[in-house]
Every structure is written in structure tokens, then in C-alpha cells.
Design brief:
With about 375 residues, the chain is of the alpha/beta class. It contains eight helices and 19 strands.
Length: about 375
């Protein structure tokens, strides 16, 4: 389909354009630099129109009318003249409020509803809340964008109205709703997943992300809002903060490095063993681990406590396998190759020096091997 997107260079428009192109559609972008002649040409070709352009922070109050009402009227008039097609309109929850922005959005809605009545074409009106996600402009698009930008750079943030409740929607959720409605033949007032949070809690939450990152952790992302907000925060990291040096515990045997820790999903580390070196020789009461050898070759041996039988697994970079290390098994890993043996290790809980749950024992080499 040939699809017109107004405001194609804006925050929502950029995400929408990429999604439509990935879906195989040809996007006809309308921006501030698009001439009226070119706009008419695009509207004549369009199979659908996503009208997401809008003015929300003008220098003069009159711009609410020219940017939101007049542009919408021009589009509806041209479509009525020669090409009635479905229209998807990014309105605002402010349309219920008596203020210049809300009034202009409500007038634009009325224009498009009238267009739908006269043309018979579907009109989908989205009253969107504050949007957040990657590619936003700090100090312009939303408090989320500004807080993420400042906290990622170690700057002080200002929360002027801490108890103010924000209603937020993730830009990807909005775009997904837009695309789902593309082939609907009737007008709708679609719902978009929203999240509510006070400005104070929003600021504290984003600050907690930075604290977790510095501790090499990952927040609990089982909550959809936390997952979306954390991804948004990471998208505003400056280049120099995308690299985090790690503490490598090194000795003649090799090294051990913690990659990241989670409060509910355990810890991931990288273990390096030099040729001929055996590491481990311990067991855990309740911890359980998973080993994946990603470079080199070796053997992992396990022995159930109070038994003699040894279980052996030959591992190498040639065949990636996950070896489970259940609790109650003495275990070690031996580098039997000629280069460093690199193992990615996961354990079900972060290391706690006060309760390490690690007890020395030896996997007897002269016991029965299976």
C-alpha cells in the first residue's frame, strides 16, 4: 500500500515510518518542508493516511490553529475532493480539556469525523497520552525523555510537581495499534496500553536503573512498564557510557569475571581456565549452575556427595551445550586443550559473600567414571 504519514520526521512519525516500511508499504512522507503541491500529489496516491503531525509547544498560541486545525482541514478537503481513504489521527487526551491545545485537537477530530460521514471512509481517532520511547528529544517530547537524558549523563534533575500523575504510552505500542487497525473497514476509537505514575516515582525509578547498572545488575523486567522504561533509559546513554570495564579476578590459573546480576534471575559470569588447569572442586547446598563452553575444550566432572561415581561431560567450542550442575554435586572443569577454556556460567542467585553456599570438596580422579 501507498501510505501517507504526516509529521514523518517527528517522534511518533519516525517510529511509524520504520514500521510501515518493514511491513512492505511505501511511505509518502509529509513534513514541514513538503510543499502543498507535493502534499496533494501524495494524497491523490494514498491508500491510507496516518495524520500524526501536530503542534503542541508553539511560540504563538495561533499556531495551535494553523498546525492542528488548518492542516487537518486541508487534508480532509483534498481527500474528499478526489481520494477518500481511511485516516488514522493522532489526537490527544488533552482534547477533553478547555485549553488552546486541547481545543485545537478536538476541532481536528470533528473535521475528520465529518470527513468520515461524508466520504464513508473509516476514521480512527487515537486520543494519545504522553508518549515515551527511543529517539525522543530531551526537554521537549516528555518528562521521561528529559529524565532519561539527564540521569544517563549524571546531571541533576528537577521535579517541579512531584505528585502530578502522568499517563504514559510506549511509542511501540501505539505504532503496533496503528498497524493492527490498518485493514479495519469501520471507524474505531482504538485503545492503547497506558501506564500511570507520578513524576516523583518516575524520577526515582529511572534513578534506580542507573544504580542497578552501576552494580552490574538488571532490574526485574517482568513488569511490562519497567521493561519498556528500562529499554528507553538505555537508549539515551551517551557513547562513552555504553562501555563498562569489568573487574577481572585473575591469577595464574586464569580469570573469573561477573557480567551481571539480577535479584530474581541469578548471575552470569565468565570463567577462563588456562591449558591444563582445573577449576572448581566445590559443591553447593542449594545453588544450581549452568555451564556453556564457548571457546576451547575441556571436561566437566560431577560427583554426588557421599557417592563415588563420577559423571563426565566432554565440552568444546565445536558443539555448544548447556551442562546442568545441580545442588549437592561436587564439580570441576578441566582445560584439556591447548588454548584458554572460556565458559559462560549462570547461577540461580547472585553471589553473597556472607552466605556463599560454596563448600570445598574434591572430585576423586580414581573413582569409577561413567
Amino acid at each position: 500500500m501507498d501510505i501517507v504519514v504526516t509529521g514523518a520526521n517527528g517522534f511518533l512519525g519516525r517510529h511509524l515510518v520504520h514500521a510501515l516500511e518493514r511491513a512492505g508499504h511505501l511511505v509518502l512522507p509529509i513534513t514541514r518542508s513538503t510543499s502543498s503541491m507535493e502534499r496533494s500529489h501524495y494524497l491523490r496516491r494514498a491508500d491510507a493516511v496516518y495524520h500524526v503531525a501536530g503542534v503542541n509547544r508553539p511560540e504563538r498560541v495561533e499556531e495551535f490553529t494553523t498546525g492542528n486545525v488548518d492542516l487537518t482541514e486541508a487534508i480532509a478537503t483534498e481527500l474528499l475532493s478526489y481520494n477518500p481513504v481511511p485516516v488514522f489521527f493522532a489526537s490527544s487526551i488533552q482534547a477533553t480539556q478547555d485549553n488552546p491545545y486541547g481545543n485545537s485537537k478536538r476541532e481536528a477530530e470533528d473535521i475528520l469525523r465529518l470527513y468520515g460521514q461524508r466520504s464513508g471512509a473509516p476514521v480512527h481517532i487515537y486520543r494519545l497520552p504522553n508518549l515515551f520511547g527511543k529517539w525522543g528529544r530531551p526537554f521537549y517530547n516528555s518528562a521521561v525523555t528529559t529524565f532519561c537524558y539527564q540521569i544517563a549523563r549524571g546531571e541533576e534533575i528537577t521535579v517541579t510537581h512531584p505528585n502530578h500523575v502522568l499517563t504514559l504510552a510506549h511509542v511501540d505500542d501505539v505504532v503496533a495499534s496503528f498497524l493492527r487497525a490498518l485493514h479495519k473497514t469501520e471507524s474505531t476509537n482504538p485503545d492503547v496500553t497506558t501506564h500511570q505514575i507520578t513524576l516523583f516515582d518516575l524520577a526515582r525509578m529511572i534513578e534506580s536503573f542507573e544504580a542497578v547498572r552501576m552494580a552490574r545488575g538488571v532490574p526485574d523486567v517482568s513488569d511490562p512498564f519497567t521493561k519498556k522504561l528500562y529499554s528507553t533509559y538505555l537508549s539515551y546513554l551517551p557513547k562513552e557510557r555504553m562501555v563498562t570495564p569489568l573487574l577481572m579476578h585473575q591469577d595464574v590459573r586464569g580469570s573469573f569475571t561477573e557480567l551481571f546480576k539480577t535479584p530474581d534471575r541469578g548471575q552470569v559470569s565468565v570463567n577462563v581456565a588456562k591449558p591444563g588447569i582445573t577449576k572448581g572442586e566445590h559443591w553447593h547446598e542449594s545453588k544450581h549452575e549452568q555451564f556453556i563452553v564457548v571457546s576451547g575444550e575441556g571436561v566437566i566432572r560431577l560427583r554426588l556427595m557421599n557417592q563415588d561415581q563420577i559423571i563426565s561431560f566432554h565440552v568444546s567450542e565445536e558443539q555448544l551445550e548447556v551442562i546442568e550442575i545441580p545442588p549437592g554435586y561436587v564439580h570441576h572443569i578441566e582445560n584439556t586443550g591447548v588454548k584458554d577454556l572460556v565458559t559462560v556460567m549462570w547461577v540461580n542467585e547472585p553471589f553473597d559473600a556472607s552466605q556463599p553456599d560454596t563448600y570445598r570438596a574434591t572430585v576423586a580422579q580414581d573413582a569409577e567414571v561413567s
